[in-house]
Amino acid sequence: MPSMLEVSELTHTYPGQQAHTAIGGVSFEVTAGQLTCIVGPSGCGKSTLLRCIASLVTPTAGQVRLRGQPVRGVPEDLAVVFQDYGRSLFPWMSVRGNVEFPLRSRKVPRAQRRRRALDTLERVGLSGAEDKYPWQLSGGMQQRVAIARALACEPALLLMDEPFASVDAQTRFELEDLLLRVRAEQDTTILLVTHDIDESVYLGDRVLVLSKSPATVLADVEVELGQQRDQISTRESELFVRLRGEIARTLRNAPQNRGEGDHEGSREDEEPGPDSSGEDRADEPALAGSDSAGSERGPTE
Ligand SMILES: Nc1ncnc2c1ncn2[C@@H]1O[C@H](COP(=O)(O)OP(=O)(O)OP(=O)(O)O)[C@@H](O)[C@H]1O
């Protein structure tokens, strides 16, 4: 498979009096058609990493290459879906208008714009909603519009920053399956940030596990669950349970990086204390289910 994205020794320090290094030398490569999930503790630099890849933030050091070419400026064949669909859609534009909007700036002719918008809305299950306004739709439907808008651009690379974090559990499962379906149909390369370990294993061909800020890659876990996934049987499978445990353990046992703002010493040699007993901590990615025997979260939760 040809390489779609290469991230080499990417570093980013937010300047200022209290300069903060969010990313501390991250390197990885994504091949065309791959769905790569990124998990890491809250505030470790996941969004910063996506913003650097999208050229919304200029990295302090390192390089991003898309299809072998260094990325300078926001690439046309890249689309981003953010968590906050409420703020990312234009409330004064119809659903179709929102999906067509980025195609206008890409100078796609009007008739083609309309056809692509309607086709994509059908693919995400929103036929019939094209003339509605975002505020007339549920949260899950609004996020479908945001996904449709990104897919209508037919991006070579789709970046998703916690895209399902603001919807209820049932809608989340539906959107996860929608993503897997359109990905299979369109063969899109996807880089998806999530704080949910189960979601990363369910969706990913591979999971990159990041350390605390400044983020580095702790592990690159291949997910050999095959293309066909099912919200219940996949999550119950032995391999799924093993992988989610492996990722959770990697995060729990990771040495704490020392950023500019940190005053604590390294915890590298410490025994896991009461706060690292496997119970959820506010800054740790969530592991659904109460023990390592399997995910107990079903689609009706
Ligand atoms: N514009 C900014 N200026 C200064 N510091 C920033 C800025 N944006 C983010 N940071 C800091 O950089 C670090 C990484 O932030 P980032 O949002 O990338 O993390 P994250 O892993 O996406 O967090 P979360 O999981 O909570 O969404 C945090 O400590 C944050 O406070």
Automatic annotation (TrEMBL):
**Keyword Nucleotide-binding set for record:** yes
Alphabetized, the UniProt keywords read: ATP-binding, Nucleotide-binding, Transport
- ABC transporter domain residues are 5-237
Query: What Pfam family does this protein match (any one)?
Result: ABC_tran
On the tree of life, the source organism's domain of life is Bacteria
Segments of this protein annotated with the region Disordered: 251-301
A GO molecular-function descriptor: ATP hydrolysis activity
PANTHER family in UniProt: ALIPHATIC SULFONATES IMPORT ATP-BINDING PROTEIN SSUB, TAURINE IMPORT ATP-BINDING PROTEIN-RELATED
Its protein name is ABC transporter
